[in-house]
Amino acid sequence: MILTVTLNTALDITYRVRALRPHSTHRVSEVTERPGGKGLNVARVLAALGHEVTVTGFTGGATGRVVQDQLTATPGVMDALLPVTGPTRRTIAVVDEQTGDTTQLNEPGPTITSAEWSGFQTAYEDLLTSASAVALCGSLPPGVPVGAYAGLVRTARAAGVPVLLDTAGEALRRGVAARPDIIKPNADELAELTGSHEPLRATEDARRRGARAVIASLGREGLHAATPEGRWRATPPGHVHGNPTGAGDSAVAGLLSGLVEDLPWPDRLTRAVALSAATVRSATAGDFDREAYEKLLAQVSVTAA
Amino acid sequence: MILTVTLNTALDITYRVRALRPHSTHRVSEVTERPGGKGLNVARVLAALGHEVTVTGFTGGATGRVVQDQLTATPGVMDALLPVTGPTRRTIAVVDEQTGDTTQLNEPGPTITSAEWSGFQTAYEDLLTSASAVALCGSLPPGVPVGAYAGLVRTARAAGVPVLLDTAGEALRRGVAARPDIIKPNADELAELTGSHEPLRATEDARRRGARAVIASLGREGLHAATPEGRWRATPPGHVHGNPTGAGDSAVAGLLSGLVEDLPWPDRLTRAVALSAATVRSATAGDFDREAYEKLLAQVSVTAA
Fold first, then answer.
1. B-chain residues within 8 Å CB-CB of A96?
2. Entry pTM
3. Are strands A230-235 and A10-17 parallel, antiparallel or unpaired?
4. CATH superfamily entry for domain A1-20+30-137
5. Which CATH architecture has domain B2-10+36-88+110-304?
6. I need a labelling partner for A123 at 20 to 30 A (CA). Which of A181, B6, B86, B210 fits?
């Protein structure tokens, strides 16, 4: 199975309101809820592609139970989240129906105790014994040390399990130094890590810092890949309209599924870009449009860079 | 016991953010949650005053379970909420730390089926047999007919149980016609009902429409009462600073407790104004400051109007 780690799981709630006006009262016309946190999004896409996936990380309180109930209802996804005392966070996206813009309110997440964190590390090591690949995804909740991902990368490497890291800031900087197989920063995350906004220079710099392969997601311009096997640029056909929520997570799912199927890099990148664009096109934020995905597979262009 | 009815129970969530800016992402620095809906607030204050209270209305889904867990932890409050299929609503108050202003997002609440509504009416009639008074509080969830409160007022009167109605709009208009013992509109609700912003004229008009006693809550100016026993004005000492959330619900609790203790109107009004002001002064929105309450009891002025 593929293992995805989401230390700061969430319940993603979307509210639709007519027009958001600070300091007034709004009637929410529509409420939708889904399990969130990057690793859970990645798992959902992998499961839809036919892979067996196990999700781990933390879950707590009433919100954690809702997340777990919804995960249990997702075919192909195994729940190996660890219970903690603090409550799983909610994120609220308030969609303004007049402008289409979104205002985001993110709870901080539960404070993880040192006992909970060490319990997780043990459970993670156990799960790695049956994993073909692992993805470490998203932000760290309060209480988890900033070097957490570096440790989890090392454990995966010691277990011989390929590891993809998708995070930001200091957690990314430290994680990269532990030599993950793949990182998938977006343009801002890559610039923060390397100090460069130029993809060629920045991806090579990130490789020198320790990442074996660097797959930079550049929004509508697709992916820029720097790997030991070569450099590529993978781009979707024309501009893709829609909601970019979850597009990066779908790209991670594409890269992981190509990795465990041992596809060459250009095929992995094609899959990642097609899934990403099919996610932007989907009517539901974070889901991918399967028909669009199948079509896009033939339309993505991959060129040596 | 005193019975309070909250057809549209809620989980009231408060978020603190540094500054609310539409169309950007916010980290919530503090999350607090408490059971909400006017009738639950009234019950909490009555219990704190030493009364036995039973709460009824609807509860559903994961949010409903959180509301019930927190109610169960409140001494003196008996939970007689009826389970429904739809989820209990959340309300989110986003407090801007820079300005102190609040932006409110209210979910609509579960859609109540006609079977659920008729189940409630039966349960309500049973609960009335052991009630010394009943308060009907707040908005109606989707699916409940707009004449709902009128029916519940009639059932209480048939059972010989004094009934207080605290709602707004068409539900109030129809409820008043069913001749409740007390209504407690605020200035806006009273003006919407009667077309008049002048308390003397408006309260008398509301009595002509069917309410036996009309207690108008006029914010910092206190209460204006029009009853068969006389007319009074009850005012707090000077301007009370703080958060007015729940002040109206505390006034309802004061009126009800005075009713079941058979106090004369001036004493009921004194209690209602003191509780209301002590709620504004409390550090926690919706709670009352007991020490302030005891002091205020001696400071409220009641004059014939």
1. 22-23
2. 0.86
3. unpaired
4. Ribokinase (3.40.1190.20)
5. 3-Layer(aba) Sandwich (3.40)
6. A181
